[in-house]
Write a structure and sequence with these properties.
single chain; 120 residues; alpha+beta; Thiol Ester Dehydrase, Chain A; six-stranded antiparallel sheet; 2 helices; HotDog_dom_sf
Amino acid sequence: MLAGKFYTIVTQQQPDAQSVHTTIALNAQHPIFGGHFPDQPVVPGVCMMQIIQELLSGAVGKKLLIEKAANMKFLNMIDPVKQPEVNVEISYTPQENAYKATAVIKHEATVFLKFQGLFK
């Protein structure tokens, strides 16, 4: 779990019953950045996916895992020093024993990740 150590929730809103918008603060001092990469920190893609998973799990009130990533685009790198806060917007639709989700991680006009997939 990355919440509380790698990132903290700054604000969170549920604009409707099937979406959650969260601003998170990244911990640029986290040990992950020592190896990814020294003097040029970049949020690993797997961490971005874990953040989406954790925030969606919190929104629906149950632990979820990624079942299928139908579309995943890493468009820009997140430098936690230059972008200490990012926005994570998730829309989801309940399905039989699963949630179909669309997520975007961005800061202002810069989009870092676009994701569409299934969580169980």
